[in-house]
Fold:
Amino acid sequence: MEFHLQIGMTGTKQSIVNNTNTAKTYGSGELEVFATPAMVGLMEGAAMNAVHSSLPEGFGTVGTELQVKHVAATPLEMKVEARAELIAINGKRLSFKVEAYDEVGLIGEGTHERYIVEEEKFLSRVKNKGKE
Structure:
Protein backbone atom coordinates (compact mmCIF):
# COMPACT_ATOMS: atom_id res chain seq x y z
CA MET A 1 0.00 0.00 0.00
CA GLU A 2 1.27 3.47 -0.86
CA PHE A 3 0.95 6.32 1.62
CA HIS A 4 0.86 9.95 0.51
CA LEU A 5 3.04 11.50 3.18
CA GLN A 6 5.68 14.20 2.77
CA ILE A 7 8.60 15.37 4.84
CA GLY A 8 7.65 18.64 6.50
CA MET A 9 4.04 17.74 7.36
CA THR A 10 3.11 19.29 10.71
CA GLY A 11 0.54 18.80 13.43
CA THR A 12 -0.37 20.37 16.75
CA LYS A 13 -2.32 19.50 19.89
CA GLN A 14 -3.25 21.80 22.78
CA SER A 15 -4.23 21.48 26.40
CA ILE A 16 -4.75 23.61 29.49
CA VAL A 17 -2.89 22.62 32.65
CA ASN A 18 -5.48 21.54 35.21
CA ASN A 19 -5.83 19.05 38.05
CA THR A 20 -6.14 16.11 35.60
CA ASN A 21 -2.70 16.52 33.96
CA THR A 22 -0.36 17.51 36.77
CA ALA A 23 2.67 15.58 37.98
CA LYS A 24 0.88 15.04 41.30
CA THR A 25 -2.17 13.49 39.59
CA TYR A 26 -0.08 11.28 37.29
CA GLY A 27 2.06 10.13 40.19
CA SER A 28 5.17 11.22 38.32
CA GLY A 29 5.94 13.93 40.86
CA GLU A 30 4.49 15.69 43.89
CA LEU A 31 3.84 19.16 42.49
CA GLU A 32 0.84 20.78 40.79
CA VAL A 33 2.68 21.45 37.50
CA PHE A 34 2.21 20.02 33.98
CA ALA A 35 3.26 16.37 34.10
CA THR A 36 5.96 14.99 31.84
CA PRO A 37 3.67 12.06 30.86
CA ALA A 38 0.99 14.59 29.86
CA MET A 39 3.53 16.47 27.74
CA VAL A 40 4.55 13.20 26.09
CA GLY A 41 0.92 12.41 25.29
CA LEU A 42 0.45 15.86 23.79
CA MET A 43 3.56 15.40 21.64
CA GLU A 44 2.35 11.99 20.43
CA GLY A 45 -1.03 13.50 19.62
CA ALA A 46 0.58 16.29 17.60
CA ALA A 47 2.59 13.73 15.60
CA MET A 48 -0.52 11.64 14.99
CA ASN A 49 -2.38 14.78 13.87
CA ALA A 50 0.41 15.61 11.41
CA VAL A 51 -0.29 12.54 9.27
CA HIS A 52 -3.66 11.05 10.20
CA SER A 53 -5.74 12.84 7.55
CA SER A 54 -3.29 11.69 4.82
CA LEU A 55 -3.64 7.99 5.61
CA PRO A 56 -6.19 5.75 3.87
CA GLU A 57 -9.31 4.79 5.79
CA GLY A 58 -8.62 1.93 8.18
CA PHE A 59 -4.99 2.93 8.76
CA GLY A 60 -3.51 4.79 11.70
CA THR A 61 -0.26 5.18 13.58
CA VAL A 62 1.07 3.86 16.86
CA GLY A 63 3.91 5.33 18.87
CA THR A 64 7.04 3.19 19.06
CA GLU A 65 9.81 5.44 20.39
CA LEU A 66 10.13 8.77 22.15
CA GLN A 67 13.18 10.67 23.32
CA VAL A 68 12.33 13.98 24.99
CA LYS A 69 13.59 16.52 27.47
CA HIS A 70 11.15 18.36 29.72
CA VAL A 71 13.03 21.64 30.12
CA ALA A 72 10.61 23.96 31.96
CA ALA A 73 7.68 23.65 34.36
CA THR A 74 4.21 24.96 33.53
CA PRO A 75 1.74 26.09 36.23
CA LEU A 76 -1.98 25.39 36.54
CA GLU A 77 -4.31 27.20 34.11
CA MET A 78 -1.63 27.88 31.49
CA LYS A 79 -2.13 26.76 27.87
CA VAL A 80 0.30 24.20 26.43
CA GLU A 81 0.76 23.35 22.75
CA ALA A 82 2.75 20.50 21.25
CA ARG A 83 4.04 20.71 17.68
CA ALA A 84 5.31 17.87 15.52
CA GLU A 85 7.07 17.90 12.17
CA LEU A 86 7.56 14.79 10.03
CA ILE A 87 11.31 14.63 9.39
CA ALA A 88 11.85 11.12 7.97
CA ILE A 89 9.88 8.34 6.29
CA ASN A 90 11.29 4.81 6.18
CA GLY A 91 8.56 2.55 4.80
CA LYS A 92 5.89 2.49 7.51
CA ARG A 93 8.21 4.04 10.13
CA LEU A 94 7.75 7.79 10.58
CA SER A 95 10.13 10.07 12.50
CA PHE A 96 9.11 13.41 13.96
CA LYS A 97 10.73 16.40 15.61
CA VAL A 98 8.51 17.29 18.58
CA GLU A 99 8.35 20.40 20.73
CA ALA A 100 6.04 21.68 23.44
CA TYR A 101 5.45 25.30 24.44
CA ASP A 102 3.51 27.04 27.15
CA GLU A 103 2.49 30.70 27.03
CA VAL A 104 6.02 31.76 28.02
CA GLY A 105 8.18 29.55 25.81
CA LEU A 106 9.68 26.13 25.14
CA ILE A 107 8.96 23.47 27.77
CA GLY A 108 9.97 20.29 25.97
CA GLU A 109 11.69 18.96 22.86
CA GLY A 110 12.84 15.74 21.28
CA THR A 111 12.12 13.10 18.66
CA HIS A 112 9.31 10.61 18.24
CA GLU A 113 8.72 7.60 16.01
CA ARG A 114 5.38 6.23 14.92
CA TYR A 115 4.54 3.19 12.81
CA ILE A 116 1.70 2.98 10.30
CA VAL A 117 -0.66 0.09 11.02
CA GLU A 118 -3.81 -1.36 9.51
CA GLU A 119 -6.08 -0.80 12.49
CA GLU A 120 -8.26 -3.95 12.36
CA LYS A 121 -5.29 -6.24 11.77
CA PHE A 122 -3.31 -4.56 14.56
CA LEU A 123 -6.19 -4.74 17.05
CA SER A 124 -6.84 -8.39 16.18
CA ARG A 125 -3.20 -9.26 16.98
CA VAL A 126 -3.37 -7.33 20.25
CA LYS A 127 -6.67 -8.97 21.23
CA ASN A 128 -5.15 -12.41 20.66
CA LYS A 129 -1.89 -11.65 22.43
CA GLY A 130 -0.93 -14.51 24.70
CA LYS A 131 -3.64 -16.79 23.29
CA GLU A 132 -1.53 -18.40 20.56
Summary: The radius of gyration is 16 Å.
